[in-house]
Amino acid sequence: MDKSKLSHLLTQVQKGNCSVDEALAHLQHFPAESMTNACIDHQRSLRTGIPEVIYGASKTAEQVIDIASAMLKHNNPVLATRINQEKAEHILRVLPEFRYSNDAQMLHFRPTMFEPSKRRGTVLVICAGTSDVPVAEEASLTAHCLGNPVNRLYDVGVAGLHRLFNRQDELRSATVIIVAAGMEGALPSVVGGMVSCPVIAVPTSVGYGASFGGIAALLGMLNSCAPGVAVVNIDNGFGAACMADAINRLE
Questions:
Q1: How far are the Cα atoms of 45, 214, 216 from residue 2, in angstroms, in the given order?
Q2: pTM of the predicted model as reported, rounded to 2 decimal places
Q3: What is the DSSP code (8-state) at residue 3?
Q4: Which of 18, 76, 86, 189 has the CB geometry, 3.0–4.6 Å to 71, for a possible disulfide?
């Protein structure tokens, strides 16, 4: 339940259009609902603006179905991250209203809780190479499902930097930019030197042996010479999108 729905419920009680018992029924799992395998924070979006999200990598399909079904009963938006295709097919047989992105490895069901028109600007998601697309797509889909207008700019890494220079209008029209890159992780520094908006860098676990599973990119981004660049954890497209959403919600 978000702030607008809670405000509407309390207004209906105040006007006498909803009894206290009816209101309590709506709020019976406030602030959380305990289940066998989870404790669902139904009111997280009320506090933070971002709903609880299901991390699916270590969960069975049955656990994801149970948690998602409980969230749907409260008309909460549902996102499930790190869902492989086999698990997704199982879940979709039970919850066919969901949509699955194989690139992002995400399942989502998006009610009208978040409307893009209420947002103030565009989140631009950039990735250095095609190998970084899965992380970039996790960021793009998360930002979109949270209600942000999203543009994508893929395969514009520093090995062919002219590809990025040809897209400066898109860079400068963004409110927040997410940059996913592996190898040496240089691209966020380049972008950070070209724009005035916040840049969120996402190191990816892409690269040869000395990339150490993304640690080289992470250290490169943490040592960026460009001001205004923040860094999230390796492969954390979801976290980058949540940060972008928080920035985009500022007055």
A1: 6, 36, 40
A2: 0.81
A3: H
A4: 76
- What does the alpha-carbon distance between residue 73 and residue 247 come to, in Å, rounded to a whole number? 29
More confident site: 47 or 150? 150
What is the number of other CB atoms lying within 10 angstroms of the CB of residue 187? 29
| Ordered alpha helix ranges (H), 42-110 | 44-48, 61-73, 85-94
Its CATH architecture, for the domain 116-248, is 3-Layer(aba) Sandwich (3.40)
Rounded CA-CA distance 127/133 in Å is 7
Question: Is it the case that residue 22 has pLDDT exceeding 90?
Answer: no
Instruction: Please give the average per-residue pLDDT across 64-79, as a whole number.
Output: 79
Assign 112 a pLDDT band (cuts: 50, 70, 90): very low
Say yes or no to pLDDT of 28 above 60.
no
Q: Where are the domains of the chain?
A: 47-109, 116-248
What is the rounded CA–CA span in Å between residue 102 and residue 99? 10
pLDDT tens digits for range 199-209 = 999 999 998 88
Beta strands in 76-185 (DSSP E): 78-81, 99-101, 106-109, 123-127, 150-154, 176-181
Q: In what order do the strands lie in the sheet with 123-127?
A: 150-154, 123-127, 176-181, 199-203, 229-231
Q: What's the chain's average pLDDT? A: 83
